[in-house]
Design a protein that fits this description.
283 residues, 3-stranded parallel beta sheet, 3-stranded antiparallel beta sheet, globular, binds glutamic acid
């Protein structure tokens, strides 16, 4: 096991876009137990930069569910929406290193560009951003910004990788040592058009700021870690270890989803389930 003189720190970082379900119960207990079994600390963080989809009543619901499960966490709870200036500063640093570019493409532009170029790069999660706006000239960028065209900021992943003098390594406690290959995700968006940050940027920065030593989360985010490792390197952040756990599936073999109301912790509670029932079901 790794040496963590200050003790291990884990976190559960839900987005308040709906009620927690049984899959979240598995994930939060995974993080909680890992901390507690090792005499460590457990943190709750609210990932609410998506102002369109996140709602305060879901934050209350998350806390109610976790209390009901018998979990406790440190206060105050970090809410990402309250730290936009910190994310902006990280973006400035990346821009200063010439690793960001504005992307004016709509989803439709991207779809059409990919359809035009069938050899466009693909990653494990599908077609990658084809790089259309990477090739704009400084004047074109200036013009379009001056016209008020909305834009996202993308990481120039190829440029970032070209500056590495050694491969980046990260460790997953389930799958072992990994060499980071962020190119499998292409030029990801680090600041969205609708909100000047992104999941990848905020999660990486926050795990550092909060001293998280063990990032535990579902294996659906395994590929994202390749990119997070690169961001940590460029921004000079701490490197935790990761434990991507398998996802729970329902009887039909499907992943639990927020839209499936019947498996939310709230409805299970209202139908008479006890916390022990849930804990047994996900253990
Ligand atoms: N906020 C993310 C989600 O709800 C999880 C982030 C993470 O654990 O890295 O899917």
């Amino acid at each position: 096991m790794h040496d963590h003189p200050g003790g291990i720190v884990t976190r559960f970082a839900p987005s308040p876009t709906g009620q927690l379900h049984i899959g979240h119960a598995y994930s939060v207990l995974f993080a909680y137990r890992k901390a507690k079994e090792n005499g460590g600390r457990f943190i709750l963080r609210i990932e609410d930069i998506d102002t369109e989809r996140c709602r305060p009543e879901y934050v209350d619901g998350i806390k109610e569910d976790l209390h009901w499960l018998g979990l406790t966490w440190e206060e105050p709870v970090r809410k990402q929406s309250e730290h936009m200036a910190g994310y902006a500063a990280a973006l400035d640093k990346l821009a200063g290193a010439d690793l960001l570019y504005p992307c004016f493409c709509s989803r439709r532009d991207i779809r059409e560009e990919i359809a035009r170029a069938p050899a466009a790069p693909h990653g494990p999660e599908g077609a990658l951003y084809p790089g259309t706006c990477r090739n704009l000239t400084a004047d074109e960028r200036q013009d379009r910004m001056a016209k008020g065209e909305p834009y996202a900021l993308r990481l120039d992943t190829t440029a970032a990788l070209a500056r590495l003098d050694a491969p980046l390594i990260w460790e997953d406690l389930e799958k072992g040592k990994q060499e980071a290959h962020p190119e499998i995700l292409g030029d990801v968006v680090l600041a969205r058009k609708d909100t000047p940050a992104s999941y990848h940027l905020c999660v990486t920065l926050d795990d550092h700021l909060q001293g998280v030593t063990h990032v535990t989360r579902g294996e659906d985010l395994f590929h994202a870690t390749h990119l997070h490792r690169l961001l940590q390197h460029i921004l000079g952040l701490n490197v935790p270890v990761w434990h991507h756990h398998p996802l729970l599936h329902d009887e039909e073999g499907k992943r639990f989803a927020k839209r499936n109301q019947s498996v939310t912790l709230k409805s299970l509670r209202e139908m008479g389930s006890m916390p022990e029932d849930i804990i047994r079901r996900v253990s």
